Amino acid sequence: MLAFLAAAPVAHAADLLDEVQQRGTLRVAVEGTYPPFNFRDEQGRLTGFDVEIAEAIAGKLGVKAEFTTTEWSGILAGLQAGKYDVIVNQVAATPQRQQVFDFSAPYVVSSPQLIVRANETRPIRSEADLKGLTIGVSQGSNYADLARSIPGATVKVYPGAPEYLQDLVTGRVDVALNDSLLIPYLAQKSRLPVKAGAPIGKVETNAIPFRKGNPKFKQAIDAALESLKADGTFAQISNKWFGRDVSKPPVAQ
C-alpha cells in the first residue's frame, strides 16, 4: 500500500500551515479505540494522551483541533488522500513511512511488548519462545512487521487493538504485540483478563506524520512540541496518563 501511495503524491499549492491557519482548525486523525492514547470515555467524549497533545499543539498554532476517528488499517491512506492534516496516534517514523510522509520531531519513546492472558503459564520470554505461537497485531503497524520477522511464529492481523485483544482473551491468538505504554492501562483500567508479557524488539520513537512538501508546517509543529515541553504542558499531560514523561526513555528520568 505504501509503495503505491509513494508513487502517487498529492500536489499542494500552498504550505499546509497556511491552509490550517486560514481554516482555523487542525484536522487530526486518531483511532479512537486505543486507550490511554485516544478513546471515548463513559460519556462518549474523545479523550486520552494523544487527544490532549493534539489539542495543545493546535492551541500553539492558534487554531482548534478537529478530530476524525478511523481504524488503524486505513489511517495512513486517509492522510495521503488529504482527509486530515496529521495523525496523532503513536506512529513510528519507519524508513518505509518516511518515503511517503514527513514527520515531526519524536514526541514519545517506547518499546514493543507482548500482551498475554492473565492465566498464561507458558514461559514466553523471548522471540525464540514465540515459535509455533500465533501473534495478534494491528494491520499495517510496525508491530505487524516485527511479528512477521520472528521465525516460526504465525501472525494474525486485525483492524485494531480491540479486535485482537478480544481474540487473545478467547484463545484465538496466543499473544498480542503492542506499545509497552498501553499495557499498564489495560492492567489497571480495563476489565480484560490480560497482563504484560516480555519486551520484544528495540526502543523506538513515535512522531506525527503529515503530507510531504510542507516545510513551514513541519517547523510550526516542531516548535509547538518544543514549546509544550519547555512550558511544562507536555510533562503535565504525560504524567496524567502514564505517571512519567514519555518523551524520555525510562532510564533517563
From TrEMBL:
The keyword Signal applies. Residues 25-244 form the Ionotropic glutamate receptor C-terminal domain. Residues 25-245 form the Solute-binding protein family 3/N-terminal domain. It holds the Pfam family SBP_bac_3. Keywords: Signal. InterPro entries: Iontro_rcpt_C, Solute-binding_3/MltF_N. GO terms for molecular function: ligand-gated monoatomic ion channel activity. GO terms for cellular component: membrane. This is Cystine ABC transporter substrate-binding protein. It comes from Caldimonas thermodepolymerans.
